[in-house]
Specification:
Helix content: over 70%
Structural class: mainly alpha
Radius of gyration: 17 Å
Shape: elongated
Number of strands: 0
Order of helices and strands: HHH
Strand content: under 5%
Distance between the termini: 20 Å
Largest sheet: none
Length: 73
């Protein structure tokens, strides 16, 4: 049931990074927060997306019957 979750999170990583970049550039343009101070948020978002993808893939692996690797023998 959760087998598509890691792929979904991998597919969402790019759009989420672009939205984060857009938000940071908007903040740079319209506020005192310069991009030189806020760019680490991109690293944090990237790390969180990788963490969620890893957690989803490990949860999907737990759903397999014992003794099978990837569902094939």
């Amino acid at each position: 049931m959760n087998s598509g979750m890691p792929a979904l999170l991998g597919a969402l990583r790019g759009p989420v990074m672009l939205m984060t970049l857009g938000g940071l550039l908007t903040a740079h343009r319209f506020s005192e927060a310069g991009f030189s101070k806020t760019w680490p948020a991109l690293l944090i978002v990237f790390g969180l997306m990788k963490l969620f993808q890893r957690l989803a893939s490990s949860n999907a692996g737990d759903a397999l019957p014992p003794g099978t690797a990837g569902g094939a023998q």
